[in-house]
């Protein structure tokens, strides 16, 4: 099955009230683990690439590895640009064969965000590619995204309706309390499901996206720290909240931090338990297994997209 857009998978998810996992990729092990897990669970999946991942691995290398994964599976796979910073980056990815792009104009004021998003939408749609946009500001740090907590801003439902109408974007990332990185909450975790409900009421046919939605799996944080890591006080979105989000109108949930933790935890464990190891296949192989297990758990127990391919 060739790469697909997110259009049909989102339509199905909205009708049946579950979410699709969008997992960030950086290298071969990530791609293999994610697609093997999705194939095993018979789940649609979104592989997403940040601009910093493109700088790290190169767009041609990433494309060829994704093509290999597509040939090795029989599930719907979309390739998505995560947090596209400008029109030029979105255009590069569209021209390279991505089936979905995100233009992140949330750092601009409303009118600038509308204008930039509309520009990307017009080009993407002319090439058969779908567009995710963002309204509202998520706090936190991840790759090239860095927003102070004091600058975070919930998405306004009325503005969201106007934004989608004026831009023609295919899906909308909203801010309801999630944040990027490993330190999402200091106290009790809380998501504004009341805002989500108001946005879905105004935009019943628009797929909604949650960024910054890793659960920062405590077991993996503990494994990192037990093996020489220093990640104190990391706290993410509880799985119960993410599941509730998928049941109540969120079609796409992004996961990056959890996969980084999965890889790092196993690499640290292998090195700590056997300092003589220097064969990358031994520690990267263990990392790949942990990423796959993490993705399988998300698909089957949190997003509930297993069997929906």
Tell me what the structure shows.
There is one protein chain. The protein has 309 residues and is α/β, with parallel strands linked by helices. It has a single domain, classed as TIM Barrel (Alpha-Beta Barrel). Helix content is 49%, strand content 17%. The chain has 12 helices and 11 strands. The protein has helices at residues 7-16, 28-41, 51-57, 59-71, 87-96, 110-126, 157-167, 193-202, 218-226, 239-247, 257-273, 280-303; strands spanning 20-24, 45-50, 77-84, 100-103, 130-135, 139-142, 145-147, 171-174, 179-180, 208-210, 250-255. The strands form 2 sheets. The chain has an 8-stranded parallel barrel, surrounded by 9 helices. A 3-stranded mixed sheet has the order 7-6-9, with no helix packed on it. The longest helix is centred in the last third of the chain and has 24 residues, at 280-303. Mean pLDDT is 93; it is low at 146-151.
Write a brief caption for the model:
With 309 residues, this protein is of the alpha/beta class. The chain has twelve helices and eleven strands. The protein has one domain (7-303): TIM Barrel (Alpha-Beta Barrel).
Question: What's the SSE blueprint?
Answer:
Elements: H1 7-16, E1 20-24, H2 28-41, E2 45-50, H3 51-57, H4 59-71, E3 77-84, H5 87-96, E4 100-103, H6 110-126, E5 130-135, E6 139-142, E7 145-147, H7 157-167, E8 171-174, E9 179-180, H8 193-202, E10 208-210, H9 218-226, H10 239-247, E11 250-255, H11 257-273, H12 280-303
Parallel strand pairs: 1-2, 1-11, 2-3, 3-4, 4-5, 5-8, 6-9, 8-10, 10-11
Antiparallel strand pairs: 6-7
Helix pairs in contact: 2-4, 2-12, 5-6, 7-8, 9-11, 10-12, 11-12
């Amino acid at each position: 099955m060739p790469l697909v857009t997110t259009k049909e998978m989102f339509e199905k998810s909205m009708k049946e009230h579950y979410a699709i996992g969008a997992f960030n990729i950086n290298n071969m092990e990530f791609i293999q683990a994610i697609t093997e897990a999705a194939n095993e669970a018979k789940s649609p999946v979104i592989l997403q690439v940040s601009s910093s991942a493109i700088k790290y691995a190169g767009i041609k290398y990433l494309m060829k590895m994704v093509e290999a994964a597509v040939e090795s599976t029989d599930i719907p796979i979309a390739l998505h640009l995560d947090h596209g910073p400008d029109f030029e980056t979105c255009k590069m990815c569209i021209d390279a064969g991505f089936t979905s792009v995100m233009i992140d104009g949330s750092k601009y004021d409303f009118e600038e965000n509308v204008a930039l998003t509309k520009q990307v939408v017009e080009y993407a749609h002319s090439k058969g590619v779908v567009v995710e946009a963002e309204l509202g500001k998520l706090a936190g740090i991840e790759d090239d995204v860095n927003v102070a907590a004091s600058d975070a801003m919930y998405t306004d439902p009325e503005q969201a309706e106007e934004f989608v109408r004026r831009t023609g974007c295919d899906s909308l990332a909203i801010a309801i309390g999630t944040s990027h990185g490993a330190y999402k909450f200091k106290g009790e975790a809380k998501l504004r499901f009341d805002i989500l409900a108001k946005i879905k009421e105004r935009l019943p046919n628009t797929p909604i996206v949650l960024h910054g939605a890793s659960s920062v799996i405590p077991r993996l944080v503990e494994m990192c720290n037990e093996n020489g890591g220093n990640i104190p006080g990391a706290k993410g979105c509880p799985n119960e909240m993410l599941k509730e989000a998928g049941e109540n109108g969120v079609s796409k949930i992004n996961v990056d931090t959890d996969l980084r933790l999965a890889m790092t935890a196993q690499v640290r464990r292998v090195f700590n338990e056997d300092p003589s190891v220097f064969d990358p296949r031994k520690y990267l192989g263990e990392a790949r297994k942990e990423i796959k297990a993490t993705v399988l758990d998300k698909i089957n127990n949190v997003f509930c997209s297993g069997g929906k391919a």
